[in-house]
Please model this.
Amino acid sequence: MASSMAALVLCALLAAAAASSAAAQRAGAAAQACYFLDKDGGVCVPSAQNALAVAASLAPRGAFRKASLMALDRAAACSGTHTTESACAQDAANRCFWRVPPGGGQGICLSADYAEVAAFERSGFAVGAATIPSAMTCPGTKAAQFFACYAHPAPETCAKLPGCAPAPAGLVTGNRPVCLPAWAAKLDVKASQALAAQIGRLDAAVFGNCEAACWLRQARACSLLGSDEAACSRDAACAFNPIAKACLRAAAAPPGKDKYDDALAGLMGGCAKLSKKGDCVAKRVKLEQAGKWRTWAPATAASC
Model:
């Protein structure tokens, strides 16, 4: 994973630690809705927890939004339940791992799913081996096995993961260690390159067909439109980023197309209306969806 992506992952880890709480593990619990940033005169920004505060009767249609909810739920389970490194490391169901902040201090139990999902969103949904979250792969596929291992490059961590093994020197480029499924670590260079090519093109033989794989293929289709704003705007699944001058996969459905996304937009927008710091940090929301997404997995699709 490139150094820039490592930085994104670190930011995601810190965001997960700040957003998660023991209270977030039960439906209906209250959580902080907004945070106040003092820079530039002060601005009230929404917490990721708002995604769990949408009415329980509403469910998102998009696979990435569902993966985000699952990641939030698991982040809350990791940081709100485990206070020791040993207990944290044993929670494989929520993909928990222990992280000590840069510079030392009290460690915290975090979820790899939240780190991966947050980094993927911050990358602009760049589809590649270094960015795809394991949550966005079809269950039981080679891609699911690959990304579950690839997210943990450190050899000492990799060796402890079921079905994973450090890649041999012949398959590693540069100094960064690579963690692969045990079967992939045994491939020769030619077969390894073939696998990398299949991953790069989201080959159904590796990724399968499910709602998450379909979402990723659409994300790649949006990115291929590049800086063509007109073409990008014609595809409802895409959104043009004027700063990056690039066409990206839209995280949310167009207004009126997904009741969940519409409700979430209302919650998130409520923070921007609060100009006073006291009002901003005092705002609370009930986490109506907490606890219901922890075991989510992408549904099978006929084709895409």
In short: The longest strand covers residues 34-37.
